[in-house]
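Hey,

The postdoc asked me to send both predictions to you directly instead of through the lab channel. I've kept everything plain text so nothing gets mangled by the mail client. Protein one:
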Amino acid sequence: MLRSSKFKILNPKQILIPKIQTPLIVVSVLISALITVPFVSLSNAQSCDYYVVSRVIDGDTFEISDSRKIRLIGIDTPETVDPREDVQWFGREASKKLKEWISDKKVCLKKDIDETKDTDKYGRLLRYVWRDKFFVNAELVKQGYAFAYTAYPFQYMEDFRRYEKQARGNNRGLWDKTKQEAWEKEVEKNKLLVKTCGQDKTICPDDARKHIGKYKTVRFYAAKSYDSGNAVFLNSKNDFKDADNFTAVIFKEDKRKFSKDPADYYWGKTIDVSGKISEKEGRAEIILQRQSQIKILRRF
């Protein structure tokens, strides 16, 4: 037995056990990994700005209550309103679907994770759009209403590429080649029918300005149609500002007298429109107040 010692026996409560701390670098790596994983969920996106949608312009563009225009990030839908182009296959269906989902509804707008991408060259806000947990941009691609627009990188690019591949593989929406061919044949048929303008006591739309103030029947192909809410416009030209454009106008108060959705029903058809030709900003038009003033030409 030792009578003396240089060692001191400690009480267990006096023993200090060092705390193990996770190095900051490990935490940083974990956080970075979580940020870069592209979960398609509302919680992963940036903070919400809530607005009511006042007007849907086409399948990938709309206007909010303060009159600013929103362009959906990461998608592109077939053209319907560009004055330089014909209406493209499935463009009108995409526009109708977007209206169904968001028109007059409060939506959540979110920026891309790269917040430097705030607006496009036209000044439109670039945003992801959500309704609760429903991711509008993604669903348009998934259901075949839109292409994945990958010219510039964005937060969900790889997801959208995968959604497009799945939609294409299942012939959804705009990827249905059989329906596209039938649609194209119908459009071509109507473009041939309009060449009969001048027959059957009709006049051609380009000649309508020569008959201002007279009652005539104008035969034309409805190249573009638009419902502003106050009126429906059926135009003979892609660009309504064209000097030779002829327009048939149905005002809101008379809209109920016509087909359920005149802008959709008469678009892409060759039609005979009868009435008094008037002039509006140098262009010819006829105001329609009765269903009997308009007729679809179905055969030669």
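Protein two:
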Amino acid sequence: MMDTMGSRRLASLSLLIILAAGCVREQVPTSQQKPVAPAASPADADRIAFCSNRDGNFEIYVMNADGSAPLRLTNDPAEDTSPVWSPDGRRIAFERRDERHCNESIWVMDEDGGNLARLATGWDPAWSPDGSRIAWSSSGRLCVINADASGEVTEVNGPYSATRLARRRAWSPDASRLVFTARMEDADELDGDQIYIANSDGTGLVQVTDLDDWCSSAQWVPGSSKIAFCICESRRSGIYTMNPDGGDLTRITEPCVSSMLWSPDGATIAWTGYRDGPHISWSNGRERARLGYGDPGSLDWSPDGKRLVFSAYYRDGENVYVINGDGCELAKLTHTTGRPRSTQNICPMWRPRVPESASAD
């Protein structure tokens, strides 16, 4: 949704990486560090999907993980954004916003742009871990449908506020449950969003938190039964973990965090927060690398958890960058040279590892 993207760019954000166990890397980039050209390596043979308005309006693109061979996959008068890879790396779901008809819809296509198909009305698709289903938001509802559009649409029961049903809900590792943040319709205007869990068949809705704060970025911690979430603009600001029943609430970090993402191995956390401009930083507050004005929703770890891809505004427009998990070797993958500064390359998502059996098909 472009109004959301615009508001993100107006915010002053910080991008930070910490070790979940509390260890600190010794190598820290200086504040004068500038993006360098990415070095090619065997690990760069995979793909990153992103969206860009470089050709006039937002379309979906893919490129190699070293920034080479960019390829536009969609070509439509509507705005195509928020690409999400299927777990097997064979398909991409995305949002299409048609301002002419005030319509937002979920579409699915093959990794090369073929077999394009409309799935449902709504926004913010999220694949189930096995790739068989997709969850999304639509007019205050949380819905689930088979990824091939077969069967009936499942709605998670609950009178959510249409303006506060949170984006980026997350599936449990076994695909049996969904965790998300929302505010119920009968909530006070000043009440914050809370964490909810529901079965993926639409039953068993449970409110997990009851805090005087705004909760966001709810997700399962990899390799754990814990749920993690953020609180921002509060005396309790930070990243928290808890049991699915709300027990054992533990504060992991204290900065004001607006968005975060755990690495695949569960050892490292990357996050954005409102703190004197975007940076990459460590929890002990040592020297940081200034990155410019970034998009808090555009963080994604490489499948091996060694690198982080994100978008940030740095002098010549908003572009996609990659940095090592230790905060070193910042590399710029897209370029807006010669184009208006309003050009945006955003929402990067790393392609999951493709199983050998899938690659051989």
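Summary for protein two, as requested: The two ends are 35 Å apart (CA to CA).

Thanks,
C.
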